[in-house]
Amino acid sequence: MKEQIFLGVIGFSGGLVIAGGVIALMVGLGVITRFIGISHTAKHVRIFEDAILLGSVFGTLMTVYQPTIPLDAAGLAVLGLFSGIFVGGWILALAEIVNIFPILTRRIGLTKGLSLVVIAIALGKMSGSLIYFYFRW
Fold it and tell me: What is the largest CA-CA distance in the chain?
């Protein structure tokens, strides 16, 4: 029993370190402040801080203990939607921070329709994910 508790504490601590590193990366790159700035929700910074902390702890617990959560198709769809929004937000925030879109548009000579390019990228990512999960690859 002591061995299991010890291993649980080590696993949980390691997960917190990894989650802390991810959050430090988000803060260091300015992803969180960019999200707050774009959404004009600076007055709710405490909610963002709490959500980030709780998400880190929840993600650590889910990764370490891998519990089975009984969800029906609707629950999985909602979980998939939120996970996709999170990953897509990360990708777009990082792309914006490193100025991928301005460099790309300047190199290929794209002057109009940048919003359509971004929508096409998002739809392609979504379609690929749906195909991936539909065929259970």
Answer: 65
